[in-house]
Amino acid sequence: MLQSLITSKTRIKLLLKFFLNKDTRSYLRNLESEFGESSNAIRLELNRLESAGLLNTELAGNKKYFKANTSHPFYADIHNILKKNIGIDHIINKIINCIGDLNEAYLVGDLAVGKDSELIDLLLVGDHINRTCVSQLIENVEQDIERKIRYLVLSKEESASYLQSNGSLLIWRAE
User: Fold this and answer.
1) Which residues on neighbouring strands pair with residue 123, listed in sequence order?
2) pLDDT at 1
3) Nearest to 121 by CA among 143, 93, 90, 151
4) Which pTM does this prediction carry?
5) Ranges in the chain annotated CATH 3.30.460.10
6) Cα–Cα distance for residue pair 23/66, rounded to 1 Å
7) 119-129 β-sheet, strand order
8) What gap in Å lies between CA 74 and CA 53, rounded to an integer?
9) Other CB atoms within 10 A of residue 125 CB
10) Can you list the residues of the chain whose pLDDT is less than 50?
């Protein structure tokens, strides 16, 4: 869906990289190896996003690091569009209602660090979660969003050590 609105595949990768997880930062050579594209194509898109005020930069040694400008008026809108494109909002809305005592939901794996992936890794944190219901809902959601979902259910105690050793992005928390 996003590909029909934004024709540059490099720009889409950069938006996913920086706007899905606001804490992500990277530099040109790192992006070049991650995306498998020429540094010139990436540099052009980085310059466009920076001149539009969507990316902030900072120098560290001889490297220019890029990071999403979270104070930009469009930051929240872009973030929400990317979540919808991936299907995160759809997943959470379907799962929350019937799985039991869910405390938090995290995106882990490639998507949590801004790498586009056909596989969505979820960490569901809570006690007494109905795993049968989760499995059935995951199957339905996979068909809706046309992506595979892998999930892990942990208690609050178990999740603390898991989250420390893995990249994660909080996508839902009980109030």
Assistant:
1) 106, 152
2) 61
3) 151
4) 0.67
5) 87-173
6) 11
7) 148-154, 119-129, 100-108, 168-173
8) 10
9) 26
10) none
Contacts of 155 (CB under 8 A, 6+ apart): 125, 126, 127
Contact 37, 10 (CB under 8 A): yes
Query: What single letter denotes the amino acid at residue 117?
Result: S
pLDDT tens for residues 39-59? Answer: 999 999 999 999 999 999 999
Give the separation between CA 44 and CA 29, rounded to whole angstroms. Answer: 13
Q: What is the pLDDT of residue 97?
A: 67
| CATH number attached to the domain at 2-77 | 1.10.10.10
Strand-strand pairing, 55-60 and 63-68: antiparallel
Task: Name which of 158, 166, 154, 89 is nearest 123 in CA terms.
Answer: 154
Q: How far does the chain reach from its first CA to its final CA, in angstroms?
A: 32
CB 15 within 8 A of CB 6: yes
* CATH code 1.10.10.10 region(s) in the chain: 2-77
Class of domain 87-173: alpha beta
Which three-class secondary structure state does DSSP give residue 45?
A: helix
